[in-house]
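Narrative of activities, Objective 1.

The group set out to show that a structural description can be obtained from nothing but a protein's sequence at a throughput compatible with the screening campaign. Below is one input-output pair from the validation batch, recorded exactly as produced.
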Amino acid sequence: MSLLNENQALERSAASLEALRPVEPADVSSRPSLGFLRLVKLLALILVYIVAGKLGLKLAFVNASATAVWPPTGIALVALLILGSRVWPAIFVGAFVVNLSTAGSVGTSLAIALGNTLEALVGAHLVRRFAGGRQAFQRERDVFSFTVLAALVSTTVSATCGVITLSLAGFAPWADYGSIWLVWWLGDATGDLIVAPLLLLWSVRPRGAWSRGRIAEAALLFSSVLFAGLIVFDQLFQPTNRHYPLEYACVPLLVWAAFRFGSREAASCIALLSGIAIYGTLRGFGPFARATQNESLLLLQAFMGITAIMILALAAVVAERNRIEAELRHLAVTDPLTGLANYRRLVGVLEGEIRRSQRTERPFSVLLLDVDGLKTINDRHGHLVGSRALCRLARALRRSCRTVDTAARYGGDEFAVVLPETGEAAARQVAGRIPDRLASDREHPPVSVSVGMAVYPRDGDTAETLLSAADRAMYAVKGRRDTRPPSH
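Output recorded for this entry:
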């Protein structure tokens, strides 16, 4: 506890000195660059919102301001989740410009822009509070929460505000309120279900590089989605314009993406399929083509929204299962107290090193360590201090070993270290560093260890014989230490 208090006092002193330090010119000069960067982000968001909005309103059939395809909803939601709520003015300006340049007056454009901005703010707040925020698609529970709160609830704000504004201003008859509201709401909902997951998932850095086989499988997957989309929705290989209900043929490919890749790739496949489906449906092809383009888009968007919910939830379930399996595999080979490898992992590493040494004809070494007087520490200071002593040794082992070495808890107060391609001389150097590092931590009570060593194949040709040889060497060291006369 004294060491902890001393560290806290040093940290408080350092913080006080840091607060008194004068601001250097470099700190001042960095402020304009940060402000300029924020301005660039706001302008880019405005531009992207305007372009996406103008493209979406090209598909407005029941009213010039209402469309069943509205990507800006997803763009605005993701912008608030990633950049923070302070970027709301960019959403308001983008929505105002889009509506003012399409139809209506300055007053209606301001009211509609206000509804679009409130929708994004409400959706982002609900997603942060109840659906995991930027991690909304990592768990199936958060996927469904995102669907309900962002896609179904928050989108009613913009639809209600917008249609009431148009009706009061005389740009839409009250008799058409329900049909316009449905188109508006569905366009916003699918924007949250298709565009938002795509942008949000791709904003996260990928976990690692893909192998060639993985890249080939991904290329095959996206090619299959493209090919199936053209067959189902764009009359590829169909001799006549027959609206066969073949939309189910695309579902196995999306399931493939969810199982084999994850939420990011599944969202990408959904977005690709959605683009192909919209293009083909507007040309009068596919299972959702009807007498009017508006009706066709409503049916298509309902299908794509429901499909997106199912596939993203499935991808989250698979990802969560994989995380649990990885955690269980880790726990199966890890000592819960020290975090080192356990006995099972130790034996597996030894057997693997034996096979590799037989191929390369290079030796490797095994160190076995025992904490001196652990029972005395437990009796005098308690078992918590004794457990802390084991963790201190584990920390010393990590700092003394290379990344290719394996440190393990052999059992009780005994530890082992496997040193690949390491001869006796190098192994003795490691064995000498460990007690030095353990002594340098200056924690109380002091802890010492006895170290024994075995070298393959000189001291044994199996995991058991090597560990036995190292154990005998360790107890020989401990015996010499116990018989050493006390110093005066």
